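Input/output pair, single chain:
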Amino acid sequence: SIVMKALDIKYRDVDGAKYPELQISKNPEADRIPLGKYGQICLNFIKEEYPDRYAELRMSGDLMPLMHEVNEEAYRQVKDLTEKLMKKEQFDKSDTMARTRIYNTCQAEAESIVLNEFVYQPR
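Output:
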């Protein structure tokens, strides 16, 4: 006969419902912090395009910390690249609508570059 050892699982109470506190990564904080836009995009990319690598990262506990790193770095790169692109543009600083339009265009271009050259990369 097989003897089952009781699992020592902790639960947290959310609105009267009990949820198990399961740790997916080596860093418990990485599991609690919501993943940002670029981290989610990278996570979905790896999950769909590189399922073996996704499973390996998940089992090793490195998945979520890595996705948080990608998220933070991508946000930083988009911000930096947007600022560089804005410096190249010529516009009337007092025209708020023109500045906003150009800023949005630069940010979209920067995001496209960062997604293709950084986020959509195998890890």
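Residues 63-88 form the longest helix (26 residues). The CA atoms of residues 25 and 61 lie 4 Å apart.
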